[in-house]
Amino acid sequence: MQSTANPVQTEAPKHTAEKMVFSILLAAAFCHFLNDMVQSLIPAIYPILKKSFNLDFSQIGMITLTYQITASLLQPLIGHFNDRHPRPYSLAIGMGFTLVGLVTLSRVSTYPTLLMGAALVGIGSAVFHPESSRVVRMVSGGQHGFAQAFFQVGGNAGSSLGPLLAAFIVLPNGQSSLAWFSAVALLGIIVLARVGSWSKKNRPPVPKARSAKTEYHPQLSPRKVYLSLAVLIALMFSKFFYLSSLTSYYTFFLISKFHVPVQNAQIHLFMFAGAIAAGTIIGGPIGDRIGRKYVIWCSILGVLPFTLLLPYANLFWTGILSVIIGVILASAFSAILVYAQELMPGKVGMVSGLFFGLAFGLGGVGAALLGDLADHTSITFVYRLCSFLPAIGLLTAFLPNLETRRQRMARA
Asked: What is the secondary structure of 257-270 as a DSSP string?
């Protein structure tokens, strides 16, 4: 009779595979941290650029628009292309564009070349996000909300660190010190090349029949899927238009209203960005546990009382409220993204690119429009107007519950 296999021997390969999968998720999150840290330096150095180039708020908004619209338009196209023609090494290529854009921004002396540098950073983001989101879903083990949140929190942590680095490194040393961070982008290229190599070996082949045909959630008609996507896009508009008012103009709001020094305002921006990172990692696992629709409800609509209070608060409460707003509002993105991926399960790259692109595009359009509005009115008026945007969260009522009865019982 043949002896049974040693349990230790059979468990070892499984354990090794699990460690490898987690290391890939960790590497993707780490590179998201590096990518977004570098990119967050752009709005963080706006006070320097405003003074050096004698810019008005409309021109500052145009920098954000250039960077974010570039990313917005390209991401769905790149994601759709990668769904049919996988390009795992595009991760490293995307970081390469970010590196070139960063060096360009550190050396420019004219406004058009400043916009060109911002566009290169936007291209880098457009190439990086769709493929990285696919890799994260590959290694999620079914916990899509947690994996996406873990990946996102890497980016949010990088975004929160950017203003702090700007306050203590770039502001004292000037625009040229941006080039110092090219070493960070180079490190990201090395790590992402290894992630791409793993993805190439482990990604399942794409069936030709499926790649040409759109798949929908099995419980929903195509009409219901597109209606749900329209609702999600409206919620993204609410979220990212409001976030744009904070990320692009929060320092100017604090300086204008409370007369704080630039460095102090950058520290407040760091606190807000840190709150976004915390909210992101909280929202993903909660969505896996209680359902993504409920997270979207609480995140978009639940932040409304705090946004309404913010324009009228003193400096102390402005800091507290901005942290609360960041935590609550940030918890929605991973839930929205995974919900959208479940609506069209065969188009993960395209859907991820679309929603990452919307995040950048809506933020860019918001920055440009709000900057122009601030030039004609005031920063305080902009914050009062934007405080009503989370009321759009009422549209969440039109989203179907995608969970099956078995999933609800398993969760309970």
From this structure: HH---HHHHHHHHH
How far, in Å, are 356, 361, 387 from residue 76 at the CA level?
A: 8, 11, 29
Query: CB burial class (10 A; 0-12, 13-18, 19+) of residue 310?
Result: buried
Q: Note the Cα 247 to chain centre separation in Å.
A: 13
Q: Is 3 exposed, middle or buried (0-12, 13-18, 19+ CB in 10 A)?
A: exposed
How much is the average pLDDT of 11-17? Answer: 54
Q: How confident is the model at residue 211 (pLDDT cuts 50, 70, 90)?
A: very low
Give the helix/strand (H/E) hosting 48.
helix 46-52
Q: How far apart are CA 130 and CA 91, in angstroms?
A: 9
Residue 206 has pLDDT above 60, yes or no: no
Residues 48 and 166: their CA atoms lie apart, in Å, by 10
234 residue type, one letter? A
d(CA 257, CA 56): 18
Q: What 3-state class would DSSP assign to 322? A: helix
Phi-psi map region of 108: left, alpha, beta (phi>0 left; psi -120 to 50 alpha): beta
CA–CA separation, 138 vs 132, rounded Å? 10
CB contact at 8 A, 65 and 364: yes
Nearest to residue 195, comparing CAs of 131, 252, 246, 247? 131
Write phi, then psi, for 40 (nearest 5 degrees): -70, -15
CA dihedral 142, 148, 150, 156 (to 10 degrees): -170
For the chain, the residue count is 412
pLDDT of residue 331: 87
Q: Does the structure show a pLDDT above 50 at 43?
A: yes
Residue (of 284, 205, 245) closest to 363 by Cα position: 245
Question: Residue 112 has which token pair?
Answer: 């058009």
Contact between 211 and 83 under an 8 Å Cβ cutoff? The reply is: yes
